[in-house]
Structures are given as C-alpha cells and as structure tokens.
Specification:
This protein has 279 residues and is an alpha/beta fold. It has ten helices and eight strands. It has two domains: 100 residues, 3-Layer(aba) Sandwich (Rossmann fold), CATH 3.40.50; 148 residues, 3-Layer(aba) Sandwich (Rossmann fold). Helix 5 packs antiparallel against helix 6, helix 6 packs across helix 10 and helix 8 packs across helix 9.
C-alpha cells in the first residue's frame, strides 16, 4: 500500500489512555497547519490494557484498508507496551510521548513511571473542588442571571447577545478554574450614562467581546429567524453602541468574530493576568 498518496481527505486517530482531550487539542493544532486537506478525526479514549490496544490497532487497520492510504495516528502514552502495540498499526504514528520522554530521561537522569493517566490525573481533591466551584459560579452568573456576588468574579465578560461570552466563561471555569461571569449588553444599557447597575464598581474586572454585525446576524438568524433581534440593521446598531459603551467606560475588548473559544479564553487570561487555578 502506498504511503505517499496525498488525497484531499485523510483519517486521523487520536488515541489516549484517558479522555483523549489532551491528544485532541494537540492533534487538531497540528492538523490545522495543513488547511488544504480535510481530516476525518476519530478519538479512541481509555486504551489502558493490551487488549484494548489490540482492538484499536484492528480499527485503525480496517480504516487503512477502506481508505486506501494509511491513517495518521497521534498518541500520548507513557506506557511502553501500549506504545509498542500501536507502532504495529498500519498508520503513520506520531508517538508524542515517546519522542520526548527519552531525551527528558537522559537529561533528568530519572526513569519515568509507565503508569497510566499521569498526563490527565487530578492532582488532589482541592483542584476538583475549585473546578466545581468555578463552574457553579459561571452558571449562576450567566447572562446576568444573578444579581449577587459579582465582586467574587475573577473576570466578567460583556458584549452583545450571542458574541461568545457564555462558552468562553464555561471554558475558563472548566479548564482553568476561573470564576467567570458574563453580562449581555442590551439596548436599555446603551441609553445609560454609565455602566449597568450590576457592573458598577467592577470596571477592573470587565472585558468585552465585539463581533462583526454580519456574523452576528447569521448567528442570531439561526436562533430566531426573521426577528427584529436577528435583523442586520439591529445587529449593526447593537454592535456599534456596544463598542461605543466599552470605549467610553474604558473596558478593553477584542473582536471575537473569527476566534475560537480557546483563543478568546487565552486572550482574556492574558489581559486580566489571571493564573490557572487547577491542573
């Protein structure tokens, strides 16, 4: 079977001994560098025994036969026996741990433990509690629902409805343990002389999202087609007024139109100089 074919579609397997989230993030970052190709991405999590590794190899080999070209296989395994099993697959295997552990072992002079899940484990119960508390805070303070405890937020995102505030807040809570609230700017807020009442005296914690009106129109039309809320004219007006409010109040903001949730979260962390609270 040829290994040099370069069809417009390739299958990529992300294989892990736990959830596969780390491998997915790394793998997708790598594959995005090849935007002239389309990838069929398949995640195989919880490969923590030789039998499961053998089953994964069978699935990968079946895909190679069906595609007519070997798939890409990206893995993060510290366990050498699992890595060896995956090396037998008819795939181009990027062993992300294997290529790094050997030079680290040489530098540190310590043999690594082959135990499963070290890259994903919860360090202690305090981390878990912080994550849960952050998620609870974010859910309670989504879209300005609660009028209490806003001063306890690490960051408060503001912007027009459907500009990406909620998913970014949840990502910050889940991945970083950050207590993030968000407040949707609505026409009533634009007529005020100052900030909405809930946000008064919280200026140092505010960060804004703006978005192109055409993109906002598209997003809102999927939710409420034909409504005044989704009309391009209304979207243009809201975006313009929201930007004016943020400039007037000295709220830093970014254009969220073409940014991923991960990019927006990192931008917020960088601006606010917030540190990761969980690992």
């Amino acid at each position: 079977m040829s290994t040099t074919a370069n069809p417009p579609h390739r299958t990529a397997f992300f294989v892990s001994d736990r959830t596969g989230i780390t491998m997915e993030m790394l793998g997708r970052s790598l594959l995005r560098q090849f935007d002239n190709l389309q990838f069929n991405e398949i995640t195989i999590p919880y490969i923590d025994t030789p039998d499961k590794a053998a089953a994964a190899v069978s699935e990968i080999n079946e895909r190679a036969a069906a595609d007519g070209v070997r798939p890409l296989l990206l893995s993060t395994f510290a366990n050498p026996s699992i890595r060896a099993a995956l090396n037998s697959a008819n795939a181009f295997h990027l062993d992300c741990f294997g290529s790094l552990i050997a030079p680290l072992e040489a530098e540190l002079g310590v043999t690594p433990s082959p135990a499963m899940g070290h890259s994903h484990r919860i360090g202690d119960t305090a981390d878990q509690r912080r994550r849960i508390d952050a998620i609870r805070f974010t859910l309670d303070h989504d879209d300005g629902i609660s009028r209490k405890n806003w001063a306890q937020a690490d960051i408060i995102l503001v912007g027009v409805s459907r500009s990406g505030k909620t998913p970014t807040c949840l990502y910050l809570a889940l991945q970083y343990g950050v207590c993030a609230g968000n407040y949707p700017l609505v026409p009533e807020d634009f007529a005020r002389a100052g900030l909405p009442e809930q946000l008064e005296n919280l200026g140092g914690k505010l960060f804004g999202f703006n978005i192109h009106p055409e993109r906002l129109h598209q997003i809102r039309s999927e939710r409420k087609p034909g409504s005044r809320y989704a009309s391009l004219d209304n979207c243009q007006q809201e975006v313009r007024q929201a930007e004016a409010l943020m400039k007037r109040e000295g709220i830093p903001y970014l254009d969220a139109t073409n940014k991923s949730i991960e990019e927006m979260a990192i931008a917020v962390l960088h601006h606010a100089k917030l540190q990761r609270k969980i690992y």
